[in-house]
Amino acid sequence: MYGYDSEGKIIDPAFAEARRRTCHVVGRDDAVAPFDEHSPLTFDNAYYKDLVARHGFLTSDQALYVCGGPFNNLVRIYNKDGRRRFARDFVTAMVKMGNIPPLPGMPAEVRLNCKRINY
């Protein structure tokens, strides 16, 4: 169910209902919605601002902030620090992930389009 976990509401109910209407189309599985409504074409920290406002697109991501735990502080930092800290940490994470080798025997490819296999 949109905006709920086993312990109750974690996403703003009005926002969750709006997303449900946008994304849930019976008989279709290709509905799309932006992860960030404010600046969907800009790579910035707006997603974290949405989490603080309880407007997270994914319940699992919203849980990083609303349900407490070690990620609350990081969400707050990315929300307030503008783009600097988020951009720096993102670059570091992407370099680390890029250095992870594929499992032995597993085929691997760099996709030209993330949505499609190259062949």
UniProtKB/TrEMBL annotation:
GO terms for molecular function: heme binding; lactoperoxidase activity; metal ion binding. Ca(2+) binds at residues 36, 44. InterPro entries: Haem_peroxidase, Haem_peroxidase_sf, Peroxidase_pln. GO terms for cellular component: extracellular region. The keyword Oxidoreductase applies. Gene3D superfamilies: 1.10.520.10, Peroxidase, domain 2 (1.10.420.10). Its main location: secreted. It is found in: Secreted. It catalyses: 2 a phenolic donor + H2O2 = 2 a phenolic radical donor + 2 H2O. It holds the Pfam family peroxidase. Its cofactor is heme b; Ca(2+). Binds 2 calcium ions per subunit. One of its GO terms (biological process) is response to oxidative stress. Keywords: Calcium, Heme, Hydrogen peroxide, Iron, Metal-binding, Oxidoreductase, Peroxidase. Belongs to the peroxidase family. This is Plant heme peroxidase family profile domain-containing protein. It comes from Eleusine coracana subsp. coracana.
